Amino acid sequence: MTASPDHRPGTQLAPVASAPPVRAGSAHEVEAAVRDQLVADIGTARLEALATTLDRATFGVVLHWLSSYQRRSRDTKRGYADDVVRVAEWFVAATGRRHADLLTGLHFDTVTAWSLYARSRGDAARTQRRCLSALSSLFEYARRAHRLAVENPVHLPTHAPPLGTSTDGRPPGATRVLELSDVAALTQACSGAEDHLVFELLFTQGLRESEVVSLDIDNLDRTTVPPLLSVQRKGGRWVRRRLSDAAVRHLDTYLGERGSGPVLVHPRTGLRRDRHQIISITRRLARRGGLPQPQKVTPHVLRATAITTLLDRGKPLQEVQEWAGHAHASTTRGYWERRHSVQRDAALSSSLIADLADATAGLGGR
Questions:
Q1: How many other CB atoms sit within 10 Å of the CB of residue 348?
Q2: Hey, which residues does 262 pair with through a beta bridge?
């Protein structure tokens, strides 16, 4: 990665009391290693965007912040990088500065101005809160790890819109849940090994789209029969999942002679599939399967359908929670409750109507 002469990234991580002595000249090697790792984690384009929009000091802290073990998920790192760039671009446009010196230029009132701007753009509440959480995390890291004399300018109760429901600001029931007949139509719409494999991972394994695209061939343990697949779940925790015979057949057909690298790759570029491409696959299958509103059939819809179906079949909540990788049982239960809330509420209303009718009949001629 190259940078302009007046904008060379490279702020060094300040040593902490417990850190071992660093030999002379090794700091640049550390910086290079951090950048190389981030290229693998978030991609060159994101790293270039950060280098272009941020001043040298902020960029150096962001490098180490994104590389911290507190941010183990690649999906989280990529989201945080995008959020910082989004705020930095607004800051440069609003202040007229060449680079965004966020660590010294952002204050309570500045964040308030950004919050008003994001609201005027119609950004979703979830998007605004995620950006603000990223900023808050960056400032806390700069203050604690780098010992910088900065104050966190983010005050979530003031700057962030409330998330009114368990669906992160969306109306209850926003996550579509398919009938099993629709799911069967999706399986029949699969035309190749990749289609079948993506379906197996999203529905029968209940993986998130970010977990699916992050899979590497090295995650597959073939010393057991059937093979075991290691999956890094949200938050960085690893779990092992046993693949079905059908999934193994589709996987072997799809991989062919490939023995390393990402599991899912774009057929033309050979690069790792991203989440947007997985969404395109599920929408294509929905169109081919004749499902209504196919544009709304996303990977999360398949996952939500799998979770809801298991709970409908009476599977223990705690087991489904672990299978889905949810930190809280309330999240798992929320899928089922949102699906059945209409039927449940209708039954309660019908009960009141019946009771009222009985009471009215009891009045007789009065």
A1: 10
A2: 216
Please list the residues that pair with 230 across neighbouring strands: 240
* Residue 356 token pair: 């009222």
| SS3 label, residue 240 | strand
CATH code linked to domain 180-341: 1.10.443.10
Q: Please tell me the distance from the alpha carbon of residue 181 to that of residue 300, in angstroms, as a whole number.
A: 18
Are 143 and 129 in contact by the 8 Å Cβ rule? The answer is: no
User: What's the token pair of residue 235?
Assistant: 């938050």
Q: How confident is the model at residue 365 (pLDDT cuts 50, 70, 90)?
A: low
Domain ranges of the chain: 27-159, 180-341
End-to-end CA distance of the chain: 88
Condensed to tens digits (0 to 9), the pLDDT of residues 192-243 reads 999 999 999 999 999 999 999 999 999 999 998 889 999 998 878 899 999 9
Contact 153, 106 (CB under 8 A): yes
Q: Is residue 251 packed enough to be buried (19+ CB in 10 Å), middle (13-18) or exposed (0-12)?
A: buried
The verdict on pTM exceeding 0.85 is: no
Average pLDDT over the chain reads: 83
CB-CB contact of 66 with 81 (8 Å): yes
Give the tens place of pLDDT for each residue, 264-303: 999 999 999 998 999 999 999 999 999 999 999 999 999 9
Contact 305, 183 (CB under 8 A): yes
Residue entry with tokens 């705020």: 87
